[in-house]
Amino acid sequence: MRRKIRVVGAMIEQDGRYLITQRPPTASLPLLWEFPGGRVEAGETDPAALARELAEEMGIGVEVGGRVIHVEHAYEAYDIDFCVYRCRLVRGPIQHIRVHDHRWVRPDELDQYEFPPADEKSIAKLLGL
Questions:
Q1: CA distance linking residue 97 with residue 83, whole number of Å
Q2: What is the pLDDT of residues 32-64, one digit of tens each?
Q3: pLDDT for 97-122, tens place per residue?
Q4: DSSP character for 128?
Q5: In this protein, which residues make up the domain named Nudix hydrolase (predicted)?
Q6: CATH of the domain at 46
Q7: Is residue 2 part of a domain?
Q8: Which of 20, 102, 108, 121 is least surrounded by Cβ atoms within 10 Å, i.e. has the fewest?
Q9: pTM value surpassing 0.85
């Protein structure tokens, strides 16, 4: 049976721009861009996982809102169940603790960045919103 991983991402918008982060060079899918977030641990809710991941990776606090995107993607070794939630930044500044870089980008700029396949599906849905 294939391993299924639940992953959550944050859609944080400010002044018409969305926050994206770059994966570290030592991570899987190195240096690709993504919506910030991470894996949901056993017994953890999506909002709790998202708040934890953003605090661990960037030292920020967020208020987690409603789910806006849900996609599934099959990678070679595992399946991803990926949910993106609208979030509001409530504590900063952004630090690069477990991310290589970050950018605030307009929706029409997203195609200038290389994303993992699961995030590409999310972006396609985002642009359809």
A1: 23
A2: 999 999 999 999 999 999 999 999 999 999 999
A3: 999 999 999 988 998 999 987 777 77
A4: T
A5: 3-129
A6: 3.90.79.10
A7: no
A8: 108
A9: yes
